[in-house]
Structures are given as structure tokens and as C-alpha cells.
Amino acid sequence: MKQVIVGVVGCGNISRFHFSGLEKAGARVKWVCDLNEAVARPWADQFGATYTADFRQIVADPEVTLVDVTTVSAVHKSICLAAIAAGKAVICEKTLAENPDDALEIVRAAAAKGTILYTSYMKRFMPAAAKAKELLPSLGRIITTHIRAHQCWGDQWGENPTEGFFFTPPGGKSLVRKNYGGGILVCGGSHLLDLVGFFLGRPHRLYATVNTPAGRDYDILAAALLETANGVVHYEALAHPLNKIGFLRDGWDEHVQITGANGRLDLYSALWDDPQHKVSVLVHYDNATGQSHEYRFDAVSPFDEAMRFFCANLAQGRQGAQPPTTGYDVDELIAHVQRSAATGQALTVAYRC
Ligand SMILES: NC(=O)c1ccc[n+]([C@@H]2O[C@H](COP(=O)([O-])OP(=O)(O)OC[C@H]3O[C@@H](n4cnc5c(N)ncnc54)[C@H](O)[C@@H]3O)[C@@H](O)[C@H]2O)c1
């Protein structure tokens, strides 16, 4: 097995989870890149890596086998395309791009070049999600799925914010849109669209509604009915002001409930940024016995698990079980949800790869 030699591009909030995962997966961090040297320098020191403000230096290094893209979503495309053109494997944070056309371009570039491409939707790698996937066949025919991300974002349902992360300046962009490309649909809802694909396969038809308050450039509610080969999915992403709801009573209320002919799975997914303390739970109800079993898991970071999976496959030179289309699928679904909401039409999802 060849050691993965990686350049990490983007050293903001999310990068600590990637650095941790890369280290545990045995990758060698050779380069650390950020426009802001102050946030990158400590990582360069920790890993004995070289700092650069220009990702092209990483891409030009023949020793580098992997570029890990953890910048804001708006610049994912240019970095991914440059890395792929140089024959590097890519791990890119979600969302892969800001629209499905750009995501498609990245996927097609990787296919043409024969390089490995992962979009890091780490919730697939929660031990509770992995166990749910393992138990899924025991449910028999899937009848219906309810999936929701209810996240506490403060009082977005009242007056427009006049400052801070959620302030939309007249004629300008809010920070939530600048950094993440949109509101609750893109931030939290994208993960659940990925989980729908992971558990049930690609949705082929949907009808959606989206609430974007007047004067703002981000949505605070997206709800949809999705049709899959494994039944209908009731989907909702919501920014709400309730501090103490959710199974850990911390305002985070994310839940996947899959009902089959033989039983039911309830996945309670914990707040993502404190994986050492907040752990997801899975409950399996079996109709034959009438018993429910609650699965509790060790505090394992899903980012570490994701990086372990990606690096193990990269070391073998193969894509493995997560297809390169993962990030594109979600970006395509987001666009269809937005279009359905804007037109009031149910849409067939036109996948282009
Ligand atoms: N998986 C999750 O649950 C999750 C959670 C939060 C954020 N994210 C995703 O992670 C990504 C980063 O989010 P964040 O919260 O860390 O943002 P951030 O703003 O904290 O960090 C982004 C960093 O990228 C750097 N950067 C921007 N353009 C660059 C360029 N051209 N070259 C080098 N560096 C550049 C910025 O200087 C900044 O330090 C986004 O795509 C976001 O959607 C995922």
C-alpha cells in the first residue's frame, strides 16, 4: 500500500476534522494552504508541512497524490479542476460545488482523467448510519421514510438580522451564503439528501417548497416529497429558534425514520461538531418479535471514519464503494428542490451522469 501524500487547501473551521482524520488514516500532510497564513501556520508546524497561499504549488508537486479541499464552497470548483487536471485524487468538502453544472464538470473531469473523487458527506460514516445501512435489508420492503434536519439557528423567523452571519446587506451577500452557498437547504439539508441516496437510492421525482424570507439571500425551510425505488421520502430541513429540542436536548433535532414491512429504523443523529461528546443513536424495531433494540456507539468521529475509508481506498488506487457522483447527486437534488419550489411543479430528476 502506498502512503497517501496530501495537500490540504483551506484551514478554516472544518479543517480540524480533516487533519485529525488524515493523521489517524496514516496520510502524510506535505502541504497546508490557506489565503490566511495565520490559520494555516499552526497546522503546517504540527505536521512539519510546507505552508503556501497558492494551491497551484500543491497541484504542481509530483509527490502529492491527494488534494483535500476544505475551502468555502465557492472556490471548490477551481481547486478541484486544477487538482484533477494534474492527476491528483480529490476529497472535497460538501457541497461539491455551488450548482449542479459545476459539480457535473468536476465529476466529468475526474472520469476523463481517471482520477478518484470523493465528496465528504461524513454522516454516512457515523457508526449509527453504518449500522442502519447494515440492518436495512432486514426491514423487507421499505414503505415510507421520514427524514429531517431541524437546526437551532436563533430567531430567523422574526425580523431580518441587521448584523452578523445571517445579515443580508442590501445588494450584497450574507456570510452564510458567501461561505456555504445558501441557507438551511445547502447547510443541513444537503447532508440529508445524501443520506436519502445512501439508504434508498437516487430519488427520481420530487415536489418541494422552500421558505426564503423577504430581503434575505438564504432559505430557512425546505420541505419535499421525494420518490425513490424504495418508497416515498418525507424530507424537511428547518432553521428554528428552539434551544432545547432534539434527543440530546441541545436544539439539534435530526432524525431518519425508515419504515419497512418487517420493522423500523430510527436514527437520531447528533450535532456534528462535537463528535467526542455527542454520539448518534439507532433504534431498531423488529415486527416479528415486537422487540426494539437501542444501539449506542463509542464516540467515534464520522470525519475520522470517512478519512479512513477514503485513504484506505486511495492507497489501493481504487474509488471503492462511494461513487464519484455523490456530490453531484446532492447538488442536482438541491437545484431540483429549488426549481420545484419556484415553479410549484413536481419534477422528474434529470441526472446527467
Ligand atoms: N461536513 C459538515 O458538516 C460541514 C460543516 C461546516 C462546513 N462544511 C463545509 O466546509 C467548507 C469550509 O467551511 P468552513 O466552515 O471551514 O469555512 P471557513 O470560512 O471557516 O474556512 C474556509 C477557509 O478557506 C480559505 N480559503 C478561501 N479561499 C481560498 C483559496 N482560494 N485558497 C486557499 N484557501 C482559501 C479561507 O481563508 C478560510 O480559512 C465549506 O464547503 C462548507 O460547506 C461542512
> Could you tell me the strand content as a percent range?
25-35%
Q: What is the number of E strands? A: 15
Spatial gap, N to C terminus: 31 Å
Task: Classify the helix fraction into a percent range.
Answer: 25-40%
- CATH topology description of the largest domain: Dihydrodipicolinate Reductase, domain 2
Count helical runs. 10
What characterizes the major β-sheet?
9 strands, mixed
Question: Considering the protein shown, what is the CATH homologous superfamily of the largest domain?
Answer: Dihydrodipicolinate Reductase, domain 2
Q: What is the 3D shape?
A: globular
Could you give the order of strands across the largest sheet?
14-13-12-11-7-10-9-8-15
Order of helices and strands: EHEHEHEHEHEHEHHEEEEEEEHHE
The CATH architecture classification of the largest domain is 2-Layer Sandwich
